[in-house]
Amino acid sequence: MIFDLIFGFLLVLAGRSLFWLCVGIVGFLIGVQCAESIGYPNGWTALLSAFVLGSVGVVLAVSFEWITVIFGIGFLGGGYLLMNIYFSIAQHDPYSWLIFVIGGIIGVCFMIITFDWTLIIISSLLGATLIINAFHGVDGLREFLFVGSMVTGILVQYLTLKDSGDQKGITRRTGC
After folding, report:
1. Rounded to two decimals, what is the model's pTM?
2. Are 26 and 80 contacting, i.e. CB atoms less than 8 angstroms apart?
3. Residue 79 confidence (pLDDT) above 60
4. Under 8 Å between Cβ of 105 and 128
5. Given CA atoms 44, 45, 47, 51 in this order, what sign does their dihedral have?
6. What are 160-171's pLDDT values in tens digits?
7. Domain range summary for the chain, segments of one domain joined by +
């Protein structure tokens, strides 16, 4: 899917800097999954659902920065990542929502403890996951692409964090 590739590159290269976009992308991804789970795997309904949830995510991220980023990236991003890690289990298990909740709780805990680094790592992992989802092919190549994208994202975002001199990131802007 072209959205996976575009969103993946945006998250890998600028997930921390464009945190509001990161929240919007996570909302879009959750919207696609929600549409698929209620029986609309393709078409306009899935795209509309994804667009609405993504837009809500962006508006909330801009309006209520700190809380939305912690919930949007920490909880939703962590849940989405864990669901993708345990995809085969989550696909057939009636309690797959529990995997999502556990991933979300872990993501929120990390966001609260180490905000910038968690934002960098989760956005790089999400971006790398989306990039490899866009490519279907040899598993070895997908694994190499995943690790390369993730490491590149962490390094690029770390360098932008270091260059900006703002080691506290969003927490400094909101006064928390």
Report:
1. 0.66
2. yes
3. yes
4. no
5. positive
6. 877 665 554 444
7. 2-174
